[in-house]
Specification:
Elements lengths: L1 H11 L4 E4 L2 E4 L1 H22 L11 E7 L2 H18 L3 E6 L6 H7 L4 E4 L8 E9 L1 E6 L11 H6 L1 E5 L6 H12 L5 E6 L5 H6 L4 E5 H8 L4 E4 L8 E8 L6 H17 L1
Parallel strand pairs: 3-4, 3-5, 8-9, 8-10
Antiparallel strand pairs: 1-2, 5-12, 6-12, 7-10, 7-11
Helix pairs in contact: 2-9, 3-9
Length: 269
């Protein structure tokens, strides 16, 4: 490992990592390299995993995807549809409504070919590979009384909140509530909606707050008059993964498609 790091330092002309009192931290150059290197590695994986003899341009098939939430569909589908249109125009995508509660069953029963999302306890019958991790942020309307760079826990608890529950599943909310509970804080939820992408217009016109994945907040800030605030407590990151069943594990089409989803997932970061 030390030898590989030395070669990388010579290649980039930068130490890449430095020691501090708190441990080893990446330099600014290393931070800048993170995304392009991740994309290169994803592309390399896609090339290596493409089965010999498979011609994506000649494929004629329909693939069903179970997306764990609307925000994941928003992040992945534009890039995935674009790449399929270029590389495999004969492959059609069928995207099921977001429902984390039944994702594992649909994959097990063959009603879905691949799943993308956050499943806290996936069954052992499913294969899994991580796509990316996402942090958390708070959305508030611009000019909200709580609209400072960060919120005090007391102000957060006093406000009304929008909660997101795709098809009644609280997979995402539980991460937030557990972190709040450990800090002795509780949200006052006054509105529950089925998708993350409906939160921003509600928050923009009310006094409500919403605790959402960081990439939801980034999308919202560019489209609505909302402020993005730091949560008052540390919340465990979401690990967004790609899931599939053993039945399709070695199938050439599905292997190629999974590598393409991983590539698009890397770009979403």
């Amino acid at each position: 490992m030390s030898g590989a790091l030395a070669r990388l330092r010579a290649l980039f002309g930068d130490p890449l990592f430095t020691r501090t009192a708190g441990g080893v931290v990446p330099t600014e150059r290393a931070r800048d390299l993170r995304e392009p290197v991740a994309e290169l590695l994803a592309r390399a994986a896609a090339l290596l995993e493409q089965p010999a003899g498979l011609r994506p341009s000649a494929l004629d098939a329909t693939v069903t995807i179970q997306a764990g939430s609307d925000y994941l569909a928003r992040l992945l589908l534009p890039a995935l549809a674009r790449e399929l249109g270029t590389r495999a125009p004969g492959v059609r995508l069928n995207v099921l409504p977001p429902n984390p509660r039944v994702a594992a069953r649909l994959l097990t029963e063959g009603q879905a070919d691949i799943g993308v999302g956050y499943l806290p306890d996936p069954p052992e019958t499913l294969h899994r590979t991580a796509l990316f991790r996402d942090g958390w942020a708070i959305l508030a309307r611009r000019g909200h009384p709580c609209g400072a760079a960060s919120l005090e826990a007391s102000a957060y608890a006093a406000a009304g909140h929008v909660d997101v529950s795709p098809s009644g599943a609280r997979h995402y909310s539980r991460l937030v509530d557990r972190a709040l509970s450990r800090a002795g804080v509780q949200r006052r939820i006054v509105l529950t909606v089925p998708g993350f992408m409906t939160v921003a217009p509600i928050v923009a016109e009310t006094e409500l707050l919403a605790t959402v994945p960081a990439r939801v907040a980034a999308l919202a800030r560019g489209a609505f008059p909302v402020a993005v605030l730091q949560p008052p407590v540390e919340i465990a990151e979401l690990e967004i993964s790609l899931y599939w069943h053993e039945r399709s594990h070695r199938d050439p089409l599905h292997r190629w498609l999974r590598s393409l989803v991983r590539e698009c997932g890397t770009r979403a970061v």
